[in-house]
Amino acid sequence: MGTTRRRFVQGSVAAATLIAAPAIGRANETPAAAKTLKAVMQGDLRSFDPIWTTANISSYHGALIYDTLFGVDANDKPQPQMVESFGTSDDQLTWTFKLRDGLGFHDGSPVTAADCVASIRRWAVRDGAGQHMFLRVKDISAKDDKSFAVAFSEPYPLILDAFAKAGTPVLYIMRKKDAETDPMQQITEYVGSGPFIFNTKETKQGASYVYDRNPKYQPRSEPASGMAGGKIAKLDRVIWDNVADDQTAIAALQNGEIDFYELPPIDLIDQLEADKNIHVEVLNKSGQIVWCRMNWLYPPFNNVKARQAMLYLVNQNDVMKAAFGNPKYYRACASYFGCGTPMENDENTEWFKEAPNKEKAAQLFKESGYDGRPVVILQPTNFAVFNTADQLLAQWLREIGVNAELAASDWGGVVTRRAVREPPEKGGWNIFVTSASGAAFGNPITLVGHQANGEKGWFGWPSDELHEKLRDKWAKAQPQDRLAVAKEIQRNAWNFVPHVYMGLYLQPAAMRANVKGVIGMPELIPFWNIEKT
Amino acid sequence: MIAYVAHRLASLIVVMALVGVCVFLLLHLAPGDPAAIIAGDNATPDQIASIRAHLGLDEALPIQFLRWSTAVLSGDLGVSIFSNTPVATLIGQRLEPTLSLALATLAFAVPVALVLGVLAAWRAGSSIDRASMILAVAGFSAPAFVVGYLMIYVFAVTLKWFPVQGYTPIGESLADWARHLVLPALTLGLAYVALIARITRATMLEVLAEDYIRTAKAKGVSTGPMLLKHALRNAGVPIITVIGIGVALLIGGVVITETVYNIPGVGRLVVDAISKRDYPIVQGVILVFSAVYVVINLVVDISYTLIDPRIRY
Fold first, then answer.
1. Considering only CB atoms, which chain B residues are within 8 Å of A184?
2. DSSP H or E stretch at residue A85
3. Max CA distance (Å), chain A
4. Which residues of chain B register pLDDT less than 70?
5. What CA–CA distance (Å, rounded) separates A357 from A351?
6. Any idea what the Cα angle at residue B37 is, between residues B74 and B62, rounded to 5°?
7. Among A533, A516, A526, A505, which residue's Cα sits nearest to residue A279?
8. What is the predicted ipTM?
9. B262 contacts A252? CB cut-off 8 A
């Protein structure tokens, strides 16, 4: 029996139907394109536990599926989110919190105070602000299903700032059984109570991550503002596509294959701005500060004169111009607390008006007793901004007679080597450059780089007793008194120079013109409130 | 033949053992610490040390190697440090896109290259020959990312015939699967067209100068059968060798094309893992692909017997 043409066609149709059958089944469940937002974010989502890792992308994932007790609003003020009411005792030592009605996890279980207590405990192990707070916490316990209390050994007005902070790790509320996981190990189930549900079934790790609207989520009645206010999910589905290549992501945005691109390269922004179908917007107005850390353990930067020399050596505008080109997207910044933050001030910034002053920098290096030894700069060649900053820094140091050596590696190599406390010639280092959100610099407690507690602290290990006392004073100050303390901190900081800033840049995001309602804020990209018109 | 195959398969174990030791040592002795990457920019050195201890990375290298190799011998490639997903699952998820791209590329490159190579040899010195070889040189010289961006600009952004990026599994939609593979296969295939066309031309030129071809012509064999049946078959061994090497390279070396077209294949998996120092993934992928290389070479060697009866194992 031979195969006729008709039988061949029939067979082909049957085979195609069989292959396509799963897709036909799925088509009924897939939300409409108008209610689906496809986004390319800053990188691949490698871990789904936003406490275990401090990667920003994991924190974004957390903001989609988890809710927070408090959230910072557009003015960086903590506002209640899951909390209905809260208060403090007359002696300011005990804070009580009551959860609002209708909070439930995606598995159907209600959110209880016990979940909150376990989540706070796990978060506090990994977060700088949490650690600072827990040095003073005597007890934290659930009073009933909806209330819990935090008892302090001394008044701690920063508690709301710590609970509300948007910088990673954010205090996301998890189920008690997840939150009881060792903070040094990853959770294995991703069930939150936030406005979106993580669709693990349709997520393809390394390729795309799928989030569906939580139909049972009960948003607050206030308008959305930062991480505060009503988190109304106007989209049925959010998909993060992991596109590694910038040019491909831009072409996909131009072609309408994606709707949102978080970090388009600044040198290609002109191309996007010229496209009437695309809208470009800076979402984090406090920008990103590029900063240079010096190793306090070894010469020359164990001497304050050499550190002060760096203030006079760095030309922030040159670094930013080389890295970003368009002055619309960068500026120089002198304030220790970043620029545009509530703590920004101009105390003790005379050096900034003078810099760059290479003669003075050379003189200060000489006064530090610099003996010509190599100064090792860690250079991540796969990180364009830092690579550029490192090369400029090396050149400037050489111009004033410092024997600068660039130690090239990828960023993974830098983060490993910067933790080495050995002398530079034995695998250690003298300088590395990194960046952090401008908003983070506005809080001397939450940014770990603001510590000056020596070898217990962050890489570079600066040490200054007065600085630590002033940080403590700031933590205890009432909100209206904090700026005055911040000025004291800055006056002292620019004398002992824990680090040096290399400029502040504003990273625009690009989106299709029909994407509306993106909430601009530092540290996070919220996906509620967004709609496609 | 059976003894030969058994011997080659036994050598697979030795190759994989050597690869395993080398990869493990290279990764662990190279600078980089997954704990520091996991902890992020805000972590203190103490926190990083604690994560390292939980991951078992603070143990002596021989102990870490022993633990890993014992697990591998029992068929367990380990778990990704970052995503907590078994390495075998991750490789399984990424295999389909990579194999699809490799097969689509071969389906385009091999016929085109054979036609170009045979025509160029048949009309050596003619304009067909020169045009074929210019195309081959261009295919070799143009980097995949340049060809890729040009293809995207012309066929996706301007003409909108094909999507810019992405991959649809064959089980979801056959048409979408094919649409997503056209541009990547053309991009990747150009270099293989060049490689195979040049080797085909060179081998065919040698064969066409043989006495038996002249005899065939004298006996009145027409051009088509003479080229395909008499000449191409006898030129087959080196061509198949090159195609075999190409298959191995295609499976393991398509990183740039996968990146430009955003195809979630094995190439991108391993590059991402290297940048994050996700040791179990890198070790697992390299181990699996060393086995694939050996098997492909074995298949190529066996295929010689099919086209040249003089070859015996």
1. 50-51, 53-54
2. strand A83-88
3. 99
4. 252-253, 313
5. 9
6. 40
7. A516
8. 0.80
9. yes
Residue B147 to residue B154: CA distance in whole angstroms = 11
| Pairwise CA distance, residues A295 & A279, whole Å | 42
How high is the pLDDT of residue A83?
98
What are A308-350's pLDDT values in tens digits? 999 999 999 999 999 998 899 999 999 999 999 999 999 999 9
Neighbouring CB atoms inside 10 A of B216's CB total 17
Closest CA to A182 of B80, B50, B39, B79: B50
* Pick from B32, B173, B261: CB nearest A248: B261
Tell me the residue type at B54. Answer: H
In angstroms, the CA B29 to CA B66 distance is 16
| Cβ contact, residue pair A255, B157, below 8 Å | yes
pLDDT at A29: 64
Q: Which of A228, A237, A182 is nearest to A38 (CA)?
A: A237
**Is residue A423 packed enough to be buried (19+ CB in 10 Å), middle (13-18) or exposed (0-12)?**
middle
Distance from CA of A195 to the nearest CA of B (A): 23
Q: Quick check: A473 and A485 in contact, CB under 8 A?
A: yes
State whether B85 and A205 contact (CB < 8 Å).
Answer: yes
DSSP class of residue B46 equals H
Name residue, tokens 């990457």: B37
Cβ–Cβ below 8 Å for B165 and A23: no
Distance of CA A520 to the CA centre of its chain: 14
Tell me whether residue A153 is exposed, middle or buried, using C-beta atoms within 10 angstroms of its C-beta: 0 to 12, 13 to 18, 19 or more. exposed
A22–B83 C-beta distance less than 8 A: no
Please check whether residue A205 touches B, CB under 8 A: yes
User: What DSSP state is assigned to residue B120?
Assistant: H
The pair of three-digit structure tokens given for residue A242, joined into one six-digit string:
């992991």
Could you report the average pLDDT of every consecutive run of 10 residues in chain A (533 residues)? Answer: 48 50 51 92 90 89 98 94 97 97 97 98 92 94 97 94 94 98 92 98 91 97 96 97 92 96 90 94 94 97 98 97 92 95 95 95 97 96 92 97 94 85 95 93 90 90 97 91 97 98 96 97 95 94
Q: What is the per-residue pLDDT for A398?
A: 98
Residues of A in contact with B44 (CB under 8 A): 448, 456-458
Could you say which of B51, B170, B262 has the minimum Cβ distance to residue A245? B262
> A221 vs chain B: nearest CA distance in angstroms?
34
Backbone angles phi, psi at A190, to 5 degrees: -120, 75
| H-only helix segments in B152-173 | none
Residues 6+ apart with CB under 8 A from B284: B77, B78, B87, B88, B90, B91
Interface of A with B in 406-465 (CB under 8 A): 409-413, 415-417, 419, 421, 434, 436, 447-449, 455-459
Three-state SS across A274-341?
A: CCCCEEEEECCCCCEEEEEEECCCCCCCCCHHHHHHHHHHCCHHHHHHHHHCCHHHEECCCCCCCCCC
Structure tokens at A361: 């920098």
For residue range B200-209, what is the model confidence (pLDDT) as tens digits?
999 999 999 9
Beta strands at A431-437 and A278-282: parallel, antiparallel or unpaired:
unpaired
Task: Please give the backbone phi and psi of residue A237, each rounded to the nearest 5 degrees, phi first.
Answer: -150, 140
CB-CB neighbors (< 8 A) of A243 in chain B: 165, 262
CB pairs under 8 A between A and B: 152
